[in-house]
């Protein structure tokens, strides 16, 4: 019989995926989408937190208390102990620099204030004077050369590679001779100076 002699037809392959596979694929897609959303949200939150911290930090520096006005400039006497480079970085971060002493009157002001600020007789305060570039050639932080000086008797002597300058009061020879050279890695307190922040001579 023809029907019996004909070769049996091969069964057709089912092109449809099993329902379990479809469900698994859907779950994977949903999980991937959720993960992407979570990562984006986390990054957005992190960026917002960083921005908030940056703004708070800037506000802190701008409103740093303790600035004193004198002679058209603002001064900050910091009692933390840092090396000369770290001290200068701090002053620059708050909009100024280590103090540059331009006159006898300014030196007198600093000496008067240090008598109140010093915690012990061993306190020294960095100023913005150094001969790091060329030994014996003293420059202020604005790169202007030293004109008027107030060295302690016998200083500077460069004992132990002393290239940065600090001042004190109790060990001064006379009223105003207060400067001494130190190794820049030495830690000391420091004095920042900056111009007023507004026409009203605000020192905040």
TrEMBL record:
Q: Name one GO molecular function term.
A: carbohydrate binding
Organism this protein belongs to? Austrofundulus limnaeus (Annual killifish)
All residue ranges annotated as the C-type lectin domain in the record:
70-193
Please give the InterPro entries that the UniProt record associates with this protein: C-type_lectin-like, C-type_lectin-like/link_sf, C-type_lectin/snaclec_domain, CD209-like_CTLD, CTDL_fold
Q: Which domain of life is it from?
A: Eukaryota
Keywords of this entry = Lectin, Membrane, Transmembrane, Transmembrane helix
Classification via PROSITE patterns: C_TYPE_LECTIN_2
Record-given protein name? CD209 antigen-like protein E
Tell me which Pfam families the record gives.
Lectin_C
TM annotation in the entry:
21-39
């Amino acid at each position: 019989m023809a029907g019996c002699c004909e070769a049996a037809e091969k069964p057709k392959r089912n092109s449809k995926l099993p329902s379990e596979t479809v469900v698994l694929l859907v779950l994977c897609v949903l999980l991937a989408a959720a993960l992407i959303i979570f990562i984006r949200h986390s990054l957005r939150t992190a960026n917002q937190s960083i921005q908030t911290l940056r703004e708070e930090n800037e506000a802190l520096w701008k409103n740093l208390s303790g600035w004193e006005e004198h002679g058209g400039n603002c001064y900050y006497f910091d009692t933390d102990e840092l090396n000369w480079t770290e001290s200068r970085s701090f002053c620059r971060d708050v909009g100024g620099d280590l103090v540059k002493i331009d006159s006898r009157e300014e030196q007198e002001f600093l000496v008067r204030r240090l008598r109140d600020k010093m915690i012990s007789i061993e306190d020294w305060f960095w100023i913005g004077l150094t001969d790091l570039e060329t030994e014996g050639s003293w420059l202020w932080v604005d790169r202007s050369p030293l004109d008027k000086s107030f060295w302690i008797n016998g200083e500077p002597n460069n004992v132990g590679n002393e290239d940065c300058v600090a001042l004190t009061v109790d060990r001064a020879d006379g009223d105003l001779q207060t400067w001494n050279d130190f190794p820049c890695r030495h830690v000391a307190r420091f004095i920042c100076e900056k111009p007023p922040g507004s026409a009203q001579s605000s020192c905040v």
